[in-house]
What we know:
The two termini are 29 Å apart. The protein is of the alpha+beta class. The longest helix is centred in the middle third of the chain and has 25 residues, at 90-114. The protein has a single domain, classed as Alpha-Beta Plaits, CATH 3.30.70. Helix content is 25%, strand content 26%. It has helices at residues 7-20, 38-42, 90-114; strands at 33-35, 52-55, 59-63, 71-83, 132-138, 143-155. The protein is elongated, with a radius of gyration of 19 Å.
Amino acid sequence: MTEPTRFTQLVSYFEGIARNHVAIRHSETEKHFYRFEIDEVLAGLKNINYPALILEAYALEFSDNKSDNPMKHRKGAFTLLGHVDDKGDYDGIHLLWDELETIADDILARIRADKRNPAIRIVKDFNIEEVEGSIIANRVGNDYGLRFEFTLTSPAPLDVDPTRWLSTSGSNG
Length: 173
C-alpha cells in the first residue's frame, strides 16, 4: 500500500515554490514563506517580508460512493501578500494586486506541471477547476493580497491495517 501524503509534504512543497519563484525568493536569511492562518495575517503580522507566500492549514472531508470509492478531500488555501505604504494610493494597490495575480498564475501553472511528475505526489490530484481566488485588504497594516482556496482530492487509505491495532475488532470484546 502506498503511504498517503501528509500536511508536512504540502508545507515543504509550497516552501519550495517560495524558494524558487523569482519574485518571492524565500531563503533562510530572508523569509518570504509563512505558515499561518488568514486571521493571523489580517490581524497584522510584524516583521514580514514581501511578497509573502502564506500557506494555511487544510480541512479534511471524506466522501464515499456506497463504500466503493472512499475519497479524502483536503481543502486548503494560500495567500500572496504585499504592502503599500499609503492606503490611499489606489493605483499602487491595484498595481500590487496585478503583480500578485501574475505570481499566482505562475504558482498555479507550476502546480499543474508538477502534478504530472510522479515524484511529486502531494499535488498529483490537483484540479484547477477547484481553485477560487479573492482579493484581500488589511487597511490597518496596509497589506493587500490575493487568497486562493484549493482542494486536493485523492483516494482515502481507509483499509484497516492490522499492524496498527491491538485487536481485530474495534471493541474490547
